[in-house]
From TrEMBL:
One of its GO terms (molecular function) is transmembrane transporter activity. InterPro entries: AA_ABC_transptr_permease_3TM, ArtM/GltK/GlnP/TcyL/YhdX-like, MetI-like, MetI-like_sf. Residues 19-208 form the ABC transmembrane type-1 domain. It is a multi-pass membrane protein. GO terms for cellular component: ATP-binding cassette (ABC) transporter complex. It comes from the Bacteria. Its main location: membrane. This is Glutamine transport system permease protein GlnP. Keywords: Amino-acid transport, Cell membrane, Membrane, Transmembrane, Transmembrane helix, Transport.
């Protein structure tokens, strides 16, 4: 098989099927991790007694674990306590756990970056703590959070390839199957993976740039 023959319609369709799984896992993980990470970051920012400390310890533990270990945990360890997840949902769960910890720190740092006088000014106008947080603090913090959040999401898309270890049929897994059947297809498949990962990550970065400009 030469370089061109490696890109037969069957192979291309198989790669696109893998890319679709990659995108689905990434999108679901982004949604779940943004919600969980946002709540965790807000709890740490508000310094809720005891709860903030417990959340902080959990976040520090997760952030210092390899993502691969978390993937193994969700797929192999959880069934030992009666929680059985499919390969797809094990991957989503592992990425959500890992990214939630990362995003919580980004969100907490973004909220802390807003001058404390903004909170005091909002409260002095009669707004409640929650209203001030939502209407004054969060909009300012979001501008600071957006670049690192997008960078984290781009890393998440690339991190989906680690789920190949539990045979998630994502892009890297499908490319591996193709060149596993014919070793002459190794270079074409790596070229295809490079191109497809680049396109997805590049488009996400461009969308974030546009959003960032609109918020300024």
């Amino acid at each position: 098989m030469n370089f061109i023959e490696a890109f037969s319609w069957i192979n291309i369709r198989f790669l696109l099927d893998g890319l679709w799984v990659t995108i689905m896992v990434a999108v679901l993980s982004i949604i779940f991790s943004f919600v969980i990470g946002g709540i965790a970051g807000l709890i740490r920012f508000m310094k809720v007694p005891f709860i903030s400390a417990i959340v902080g310890v959990l976040i520090d533990i997760i952030r210092n674990l390899p993502l691969l270990l978390i993937i193994f945990f969700t797929y192999f360890a959880l069934p030992q306590v009666g929680i059985r997840l499919s390969i797809f949902w094990s991957s989503v769960a592992a990425l959500t756990i890992f990214e939630s910890a990362m995003l919580s720190e980004i969100i907490r740092a973004g909220l802390n970056a807003v001058p404390k006088g903004q909170m005091e000014a909002g409260r002095s106008t009669g707004l409640t703590y929650g209203q001030t947080l939502w209407s004054i603090i969060f909009p300012q913090a979001f501008q600071k959070m957006l670049p690192p959040i997008v960078s984290q999401f781009i890393s998440l898309i690339k991190d989906t390839s680690l789920a190949v270890i539990i045979s998630l049929p994502e892009l890297t897994h499908n490319a591996k199957i193709i060149y596993g059947q014919d070793t002459t297809a190794v270079l074409p498949m790596f070229a295809a993976m490079t191109f497809l990962y680049f396109i997805v990550c590049f488009l996400l970065s461009r969308v974030s740039k546009r959003l960032e400009l609109k918020l300024q």
